[in-house]
């Protein structure tokens, strides 16, 4: 399927459940061939958005194109090109993992046998066990193997590594990079910041059903602040008077403060002038971006 | 407060609505059916007549129980107690499995098991709650009987007998929960044992010996190996004696102790019957949504099929007994002719038509359950794996409806074939085989209407579909099959699809009704898929 202007284009998406509002004008744009991080606190509307993208739920308002089609009206066309792993994979307890993988891939046209074998090996999954005996991590692996064993144009993962150990997380990351190498597009909803930081080209952060920030991590870092930790500060020196410095915590000759991106050089030269004995600079982490949006005193989500 | 007492309280709180619904439902059934007996058979002559007909008719004895006198209470007890006992048993088994193996399946047992208490404490608490629940059930049944004006001693004994059946099967379920690897398996095994107990007493009662004036029937030995038979032997409104209740009491204590001993030595999640490794890949049939729906339904379908085949087989197997009972007793034949005017039909036909009618309800139940599986697939999140594939939504739901329709057909054919073969074995002509299958199939259109109704419920009100689907089946059963016993008005009975089924060979096949019901079923199923395409998933 060919599409113009991005794999996913959602503008002002809304969704109401009775009186409660799950999405209140959400924007999301995912380019072809990118790995796009989809972040938000619990109840922000991530899973609802994904269900709308997949045509399982119908948006109450807004514009939506997935691979060039309306997923509600043309669900089948979208489903032919999409591979999906839900956040909490629940399986048929009396089928084996291998049977479930074959079922799900067959509905999408059949697994690539070599890829299926390789995925079972990489994820160390025993396909002969009944699903009811799998742990949460193993259920997640069944979902991942089923989604990855047949190549798709767009992959949608809803918190895909919950329940996986760090080794399996890295196996998952390798496969996501392989997908991108093959030209696939990935929408990755996640809570694990390191995962997003390692994998994603661009990120969309949502909160209470609205997009609060979107862009490349580099650009987001650009508008964010680095953290400075300084020792050996003379008694007379006060970093708070410097341009672009915020939230100074001072304890004797030690201080910790945040510096705006454009003012780093000026702050550094001032610190040199004061002849401090030690400087540690931490670049703005995704976590600090995250906390900046989540940390507002407004509490609670909508769904 | 001890840990056990706390758990009991928590458990009863968690179960308060479910148990209330069960207990109130059973008490209402008792109230309605005993009230109906009292008003319908107010005159002693009427009671003597109905008891005499029943005593001489193994079909009656098979389905209902053995008469133990002609007092109003005795007539109610023999007509209604076996059903009440089955419901009490099912309430107790489902209750116990819900609070034992189902907790292990869902991981809740792990949370509770990590608390400072002994390993068997959760099971002990469940059994204590079982005793309380059955005691309340027994009390409610007794109160219902007192309320319609039956004597208090008999009412109390009936309540105790009802509770005794619940207790025995509650501890049977506790053992099944130890043995089976899943709550589904434990429920299936327990329900099968309840069915076996009902059938054992059915055979024992049908083979029972009536006394000279046809007011009392002494059941044969198979009734004495069934906990339901023991409870019937209490005979609260006849020659009343609580002595037979010693048997369920001892059995409850022994089985309960065994379950507790097993629980004490068992790993969390382990079972006597192990889960074996399966296939590493799926066979062709398991690679399609329809195949999946069928594979998921198959064990349940086999269960319904066996139940219907056993019931149908008994219809055929008991036919000679029925015929002999009438033929050997000229005065009885005359009595029946007088009591049931116009019903000059062959007694064997009456018997087989009645039992195959019940098989039709079983067929509908199998179909309804197959459709309701779609709801659990959605509610438990598995539909969310299937529906984002190119599989169409309508196709997916239609798959479950098709499996429902196939289930209806399979159960009906199983019942009819078993009945026909049993007729053949007991010396009737081969014509009985196609006749019996035809008689069973005559109920298929009505069953299909219920299957389609269930699909509509699922499409429109998914959250209510499971209770509403079963409720409609029960209402159809009550209105269509028990309507005359409960003296429901004609128009209420006509609401049930079963009221429009032809009872072959007593009636001729009403082709128009059959075609009309089939058309309604097809239309309903198609509407359901159209509506289903327009709603959110999960709902």
Structure report:
The complex is a heterodimer of chains A (303) and B (539). Chain A has 303 residues and is of the alpha/beta class. Chain A folds into two domains: 8-220, Rossmann fold (3-Layer(aba) Sandwich); 225-283, 2-Layer Sandwich (Alpha-Beta Plaits). Chain A has ten helices and 13 strands. In chain A, the strands form three sheets. Chain A has a six-stranded mixed sheet with strand order 5-6-7-3-8-9, sandwiched between helices. Chain B has 539 residues and is mainly alpha-helical. Chain B has a domain at 1-269. In chain B, 72% of the residues lie in helices and 1% in strands. Chain B has 23 helices and two strands. Chain B has a two-stranded antiparallel sheet. Chain B is globular and about 70 Å long. The chains are: A alpha/beta (303), B mainly alpha (539). Chain A binds chain B through residues 51, 54-58, 75-76, 79-80, 82, 84, 86, 88-96, 98-104, 106-109, 126-130, 132-133, 143, 146, 156, and chain B through 105, 181-182, 184, 275, 277-282, 286-289, 292, 295-296, 380-382, 384-393, 534, 536-538.
